[in-house]
Every structure is written in C-alpha cells, then in structure tokens.
Amino acid sequence: MTLSCPVPRVETERVLLGHGSGGQLMAELLAEVITPALGITGPLEDAALIGLDQVFSTDSYVVTPRFFPGGDIGSLAVHGTVNDLAMRGARPIALSLAYIIEEGLPISELRDITHSAAAAARAVGVPIVTGDTKVVGRGAADGLYITTTGVGVRLRDAWPSAASAVPGDVVLVSGPIGSHGISILNAREGLGFDADIASDSQPLHDLVAAMITAGGADVHVLRDPTRGGLATSLNEIATASDVCVEIVESAVPVPALVAAACELLGLDPWHVANEGCLVAFVAQASADAVVAAMRALPEGSETTIIGEVTHGVPGRVVAHTLVGSSRVVDVLVGEQLPRIC
C-alpha cells in the first residue's frame, strides 16, 4: 500500500458584497481584475467621451426595495444614467432599458415600474429607443434588475473630468446630502423614521447645462456622489487630479432628519449615497456666476460652497472641523449600505 499526501485545498478569493460599494474594495476589484483585462487606463469617469462630442454611459440597478419614498427602480435607472452623461457635460439624446426579471414577479409591479421609467424619460425629453428582456428562475434575481445605457452629445465648452481639478478651484455641492441612502434603508428595514426622509432622485442635465452656460470650460469637474457618497467622490477626484481637497465640515449641507438617523445608526452621512445632487469643482473666476446659475433652478436652489482645492498633500481630502482641528476624509473599505442603487 502506497501512502500519499493529499493536495492541499486552496480557497480562492471570492466577490463580496462590499466589492460593489463604490469604496476601497470596489476600487481594488476594478484595478486588479476588470480594467487591466479590458485595457482601460486613466481615471474612471461617470461616462466615456467618444471622439470629441459623443458621450456614452451604462449602469445597472439592483436597489431594494424597488419602490421607496421619492422614487422607484424605474425612475432611478433613468435619472442615474441621464446624470452620468451630464457629469461629462453631455445632453442626453437616447436611452436603452434592459430587464432581468425573476420568475414570479407580479406583472402589475413590472407594469408600474415600466410606466415610471417611461414617465421619467419623457420628463427629461430623452427617448428609450431599445432594450432587452430576460427571465430567470425563482431566487436568481431578487425580483428585478435593470440596466440602462445612455448616449449624449457634449455641450459646447464642456470639458469636465475627474482629472481636471487644479489648486484654487472652488468646491460646490448642489444640494443636501444623504437623503437617498437613508430613505432606502428606512424603507427596507422598516425603521420608522419620519416619512419626510425621501430619496433626492432627480435628473441633473438642465442644472449642468446652466452651469456650462455660466462657466464654460471653467467648470473643471462634475461628479454625482452615488455609491460611497460625498467622501468617495472627493477622494476619487483628489486622486485623479493629484491635488489636495480641503472641505469646511460645517459647510456640508446635511438635512437634520438625515443627520439624526445617521447618528442613531452609527453612519457617516458623507458616505451615504445620493441620486439627485452633484459635486463641482469650478475655477475661482467663474464660481460666483456658476453658483448664481445653479441657485436659479429648483434642483440647484440649495447650492453651497463647501471648500477648495489647495497645494496640500496630493490625493488627500481634509475636513476642517468646528473645533478648529482637521481630519483626513477616507473612503470606506467595504459596504455601508448595500443595494441602494
């Protein structure tokens, strides 16, 4: 009888929920697995610029619950893709809509979601021109997943990029942060928070158009702080542009109800997802004009200056606190609130 040693069992790495968070784990997954295989280099933007004028973006939506205060998965999918195009300074011209449906989803629910997506697209003024429908077995898709793809045309003098921030830029947010993520968590878990906490899901293409009209190429960076929230977006921009971003903590607008919910749950509102506000880096010379143009529209009426770009440590985001101290603003390693978009 011959004895032999068994081959050691090697446990391979596996995808975690946190790999979809928009934080550090997701950045590692993209950098180590996905972008090298696809040959993608340079900073990752909300949408791709093709040639000089065409902009292209795609996104998938797995939010749960599918209906929530302020919206549903259908309208969210349209708004999200329209906003991704807008963050590259583009006017949307066409969308596609693809469904992965789990067997057993009520037809009435699918009908309501489709009507909601169609209504959102009509309100934006962009047609849904193509799509796809697949059905999978029970337990394979958690009801419904949606993928939307958008094509847009770059506005004249619009060249925003995550890599274009420079020292002296003013940092703006177009409205209060944190409402979307807390609204989803409240609806999902039945936490009983005030019903006034609703998602901020809305299209931002008209707001961006007004900003470009006012500031042109001085609008250096546009970003919608979705997964990972404001903190992640600021860090992505600081890294891509190799600059230091300094934020006045007290200037960041957080609704009182959102702040209270975050404090109770031990969450940081800077890491909570948004779906209806943007972060902008604008040259000092055009900042006043851009802020005025933003505040003239409902979706930008609460625009706030929250900080500036400096010559500090490149790639770092620093928050200056009420007590006169400073802290480094990091991205999350994993997932704070999964399935929020």
UniProtKB/TrEMBL annotation:
<dbReference type="InterPro" id="IPR016188">
    <property type="entry name" value="PurM-like_N"/>
</dbReference>
<dbReference type="InterPro" id="IPR036921">
    <property type="entry name" value="PurM-like_N_sf"/>
</dbReference>
<feature type="domain" description="PurM-like N-terminal">
    <location>
        <begin position="45"/>
        <end position="153"/>
    </location>
</feature>
<feature type="domain" description="PurM-like C-terminal">
    <location>
        <begin position="167"/>
        <end position="315"/>
    </location>
</feature>
<dbReference type="Pfam" id="PF02769">
    <property type="entry name" value="AIRS_C"/>
</dbReference>
<dbReference type="InterPro" id="IPR011854">
    <property type="entry name" value="HypE"/>
</dbReference>
<dbReference type="InterPro" id="IPR010918">
    <property type="entry name" value="PurM-like_C_dom"/>
</dbReference>
<protein>
    <submittedName>
        <fullName>Hydrogenase expression/formation protein HypE</fullName>
    </submittedName>
</protein>
<comment type="similarity">
    <text>Belongs to the HypE family.</text>
</comment>
<dbReference type="InterPro" id="IPR036676">
    <property type="entry name" value="PurM-like_C_sf"/>
</dbReference>
<dbReference type="Pfam" id="PF00586">
    <property type="entry name" value="AIRS"/>
</dbReference>
